[in-house]
Q: What sequence folds into this?
């Protein structure tokens, strides 16, 4: 008599899309593309190891305990493994499903619950974040942030360390279009995000002005809701879908032909609305249409007629934001755009597409691993010998800039939109 199978008739148990787990052939090519595996050298901190865990949970062979939850929590969701995978495993979808299962079935420590709830209660809501940071603007105006940090609890001190200076933003804005775009010009809308519009709004404004100067018809998005990425990455699928529905309505109403975000994580979240809302008849078709319109700023600017640029002599290294390179597959367009500026010399850094440790709110909930990855990234930046680090995601900007500040480095970290604005002045 054959031994009974360990797999029950209905094995999924809420662990992602169970059938997708079998796309993994366990070749291990993902391991060296995984930031956490590179640091820990622990199989369960690799994508392959986490997929083993997901299968074991789905098949009822293990229960969710602190160790299993820890291995899932430590994943950055960078999707470097998807680029490396020869089998096309949809790891991003799998880890989001696994995290949902953890949130529904595992009780975290008080401190962990506090951190995650604080992030979820504040970051997706720009007005709440502005209110929270209002006193810090006054502190920064008088140069008192170091004194404040010295008396704060360690966790709050570490969070404060990641915030950019909150003095008035003096970064230059790109020139507006010299001539009005044609009435038949493609319409583009910039989704301003939640954290970005509070801490890095020059990146949104410069994106809009650069697109206008390139001849696109820029339309405004009202209202702008959080894209839902933070919730998707932390296992709060219900609120992520609420945000997705609100954005689908607004983006459809905008009439835009292309959708851009200065935050690459937001771009990927919007690009996946079609899959996220595929089972909702009221939204499925519109969500697919919205997802199909997501474009990258650099790609749109390369598609536009070239405009003369003044010389801007400097050395630039480019950091590939995870979701831009692994989620949208954009690697060469930003480099081509930078190389087109007279005087700019591009120097490649080692492991330019290895995660810097920001990963949305990861550097707030997993500070130790995030700091390890920030150090690795900063080492490679310094070794490249550049004057500027250019990137396409504000979270990466804050993370890398904080590490370079700790080192007393003079290397400037600048978003692509802001760099292009400086080069056009």
A:
């Amino acid at each position: 008599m054959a031994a009974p199978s360990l797999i029950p008739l209905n094995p999924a148990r809420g662990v992602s899309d169970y059938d997708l787990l079998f796309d993994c052939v366990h070749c291990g090519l993902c391991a060296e593309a995984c930031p956490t595996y590179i640091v820990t050298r622990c199989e369960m901190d690799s994508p392959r190891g986490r997929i083993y865990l997901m299968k074991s949970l789905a098949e009822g062979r293990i229960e969710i305990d602190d160790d299993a939850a820890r291995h899932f929590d430590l994943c950055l969701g960078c999707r470097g493994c998807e680029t490396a995978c020869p089998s096309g495993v949809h790891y991003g979808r799998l880890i989001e499903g696994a995290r949902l299962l953890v949130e529904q079935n595992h009780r975290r420590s008080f401190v962990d619950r506090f951190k995650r709830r604080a992030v979820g209660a504040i970051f997706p809501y720009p007005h709440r974040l502005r209110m929270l940071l209002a006193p810090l603007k006054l502190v920064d105006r008088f140069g008192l942030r170091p004194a404040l940090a010295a008396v704060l609890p360690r966790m709050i001190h570490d969070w404060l360390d990641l915030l950019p200076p909150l003095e008035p933003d003096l970064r230059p804005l790109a020139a507006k279009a010299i001539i009005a775009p044609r009435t038949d010009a493609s319409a583009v809308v910039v989704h301003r995000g939640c954290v970005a519009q509070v801490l890095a709004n020059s990146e949104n404004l410069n994106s809009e002005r650069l697109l206008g100067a390139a001849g696109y018809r820029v339309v405004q998005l009202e209202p702008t809701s959080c894209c839902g990425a933070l919730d998707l990455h932390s296992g709060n699928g219900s609120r992520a879908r609420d945000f997705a529905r609100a954005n689908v309505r607004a983006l459809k109403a905008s009439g835009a032909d292309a959708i851009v975000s200065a935050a690459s994580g937001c771009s990927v979240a919007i690009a996946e609305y079609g899959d996220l809302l595929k089972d909702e008849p009221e939204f499925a078709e519109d969500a697919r249409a919205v997802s199909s319109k997501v474009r990258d700023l650099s790609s749109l600017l390369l598609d536009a007629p070239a405009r003369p640029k003044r010389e801007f002599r400097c050395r630039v290294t480019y950091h590939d934001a995870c979701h831009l390179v692994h989620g949208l597959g954009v690697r060469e367009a930003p480099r081509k755009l930078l190389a087109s500026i007279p005087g700019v010399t591009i120097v490649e850094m080692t492991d330019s597409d290895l995660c810097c440790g920001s990963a949305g709110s990861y550097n707030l909930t997993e500070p130790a691993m995030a700091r390890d990855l920030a150090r690795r990234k900063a080492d490679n930046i310094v070794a490249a010998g550049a004057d500027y680090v250019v990137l396409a995601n504000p979270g990466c900007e804050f993370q890398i800039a904080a590490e370079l500040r700790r080192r007393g480095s003079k290397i400037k970290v600048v978003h692509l939109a802001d760099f292009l604005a400086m080069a056009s002045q």
Notes: The mean pLDDT is 89. Strands lie at 187-191, 217-219, 258-261, 314-318, 344-346, 388-391, 412-415.
